[in-house]
Design goal:
Oligomer: single chain
Structural class: mainly alpha
Radius of gyration: 18 Å
Strand content: under 5%
Helix content: 55-70%
CATH architecture: Up-down Bundle
Shape: elongated
Strand order of the largest sheet: 1-2
Number of helices: 5
CATH class: Mainly Alpha
Distance between the termini: 60 Å
Length: 180
């Protein structure tokens, strides 16, 4: 077994996939770390999803794999690019779930939470939004393919819709924002 501890990062630097060495404080690593955190939270969600949501859990695991590809692209791996079909797949899944809730769709802000799985989805959604913001910041200084921003934006939308769907299917009465 190969030892995971190389000690190469002990001075606060790490390698990108292309071999370029950067400070671990570099914004590129911030985005990669955000993606890792998002992927981990999706793993929590998948672990919490019961049988009625097996299809959604399988799609989340597919997305976990895709997030590794997004991370590899951000880490400047050669020959690793996100497929444009991913964006359409996320959009289609989101639209399908929304159609299934058409009679119960809320038009006001909902308080995060609900059933446990929905609450974890809210956490994943907010991490996805943060990742997107950091990617926008990275794009201001370095080349980032626009498709990556679109994917993160749609993914956070999907996570919100999935959270609503889980609450809907488990008959949770949503709590709306009360400005009083």
């Amino acid at each position: 077994m190969q030892n995971i501890s190389t000690k190469k990062g002990d001075k606060g630097q790490s390698d990108l996939a292309n071999g370029r060495r950067l400070s671990k404080a570099n914004l590129r690593f911030e985005v990669i770390g955000d993606l890792d955190e998002l992927n981990s939270w999706l793993g929590v969600v998948v672990a919490k999803m019961d049988q009625p949501f097996r299809q959604q859990a399988d799609f989340l695991q597919f997305l976990q794999n895709q997030l590794f590809i997004v991370g590899a692209e951000i880490a400047q791996a050669k020959k690793v690019k996100v497929n444009h079909k991913l964006l359409a797949s996320i959009e289609q899944r989101s639209e399908k779930l929304q159609q299934q809730m058409i009679d119960d769709w809320h038009s006001s802000f909902l308080l995060p939470g609900g059933v446990e799985t929905a609450a974890w989805l809210d956490v994943a959604r907010t991490i996805c939004r943060r990742t997107e913001r950091h990617l926008v910041k990275l794009k201001q200084h370095q080349a980032v393919r626009p498709i990556l921003l679109k994917i993160l934006n749609r993914l956070s939308d999907y996570l919100y819709v999935l959270r609503c769907y889980v609450n809907h299917e488990l008959n949770y009465q949503e709590k709306e924002f009360d400005s009083k």
